[in-house]
Write a structure and sequence with these properties.
Layout (H helix, E strand, L loop, with lengths): L19 H4 L6 H4 L6 H8 L14 H5 L8 H14 L1
Length: 89
């Protein structure tokens, strides 16, 4: 298994090291396992040349909030974060 913690943080912000698929060896982690077209969030973050989805100025965007399996982040938290962003704008 990898030892560099940053390599174990998926582009969506999920910590791969806590995932049963990673732990049992059936996935090598988002940054090495995914290819273009596998994951909306991975593709978006990669295209924008960001490390993580949360670093995007549009976070949380409509895509991550409405697409199925775009993130493992809690939907209620994303809604709260979106309302806070709109309030500050």
């Amino acid at each position: 298994m990898k030892t560099n913690v940053e390599e174990l943080i998926g582009k969506c912000g999920f910590y791969c090291g806590s995932c049963p698929d990673y732990i049992n060896g059936s996935c090598s982690g988002c940054r090495t396992a995914h290819k273009t077209g596998d994951c909306f969030t991975f593709d978006c973050v990669d295209k924008k040349k960001l490390d993580y989805c949360g670093r995007c100025s549009d976070f949380p965007c409509k895509g991550i909030m409405t697409r199925e399996k775009a993130t493992v982040l809690d939907k209620k938290w994303l809604e709260w974060k979106h309302k806070d962003k709109v309030k500050r704008a």
